[in-house]
Amino acid sequence: MASSSLLLIGVVSIFLYLTTSATSNSNQNLDTYIVQVEPNYDYQSFLPTDILSTSTAAITHSYENVFSGFAAKLSKADLEFVKNRNGFVSAHRERTYPLHTTHSPEFLGLFRNLGFWNGSSKYGKGVVIGLLDSGISPSHPSFHDAGMPPPPSKW
Q1: Which of 8, 45, 62, 75 gives 20 to 30 Å between its CA and that of 137?
Q2: 28-93 sits in which CATH class?
């Protein structure tokens, strides 16, 4: 009885090992891409049906407000499939950007135990702030001065 239990445990262990290593090897070739599609397209229709039925490539987020699209873990072959679909606009591989400063509190004039950073403050612990600034365009309609009076002679 003990030997059959050990044999069963051994077989299950080998099966679990082989299953996990196969899954981790297939995940090594996946990258996360942010895919923009034309409005009113069902983003799931952009992925091959075999991807939707597996857990290795997954849609991680869908975008509806600023643009239409989704983020998904895709292989290079899956990305090519997505690029050839009607309604595809663009795809960008997810990137992590390095910090540009390690002295933000001092730069912002924040000091411990003063103002918002009083003794009970968590000092922003757990807060993540992201900002991507692509600049401004002086030719944007927001900067047109049509209908505006001339500036005052003294400011």
Answers
A1: 62
A2: alpha beta
| Chain segment 11-63, per-residue pLDDT in tens | 445 555 555 444 444 455 889 999 999 988 887 787 877 665 665 557 888 88
CB 14 within 8 A of CB 69: no
142: its two tokens = 């927001």
Given a contact cutoff of 8 angstroms between Cβ atoms, the answer to whether 56 and 30 are in contact is: yes
Query: How far apart are the C-alpha atoms of 121 and 118, rounded to whole Å?
Result: 5
DSSP summary character for residue 45: G
Tokens 């912002």, located at residue = 108
Task: Count other Cβ atoms within 10 Å, centred on residue 68.
Answer: 18
The burial class, CB within 10 Å (0-12 / 13-18 / 19+), for 82 is: buried
d(CA 124, CA 117): 9
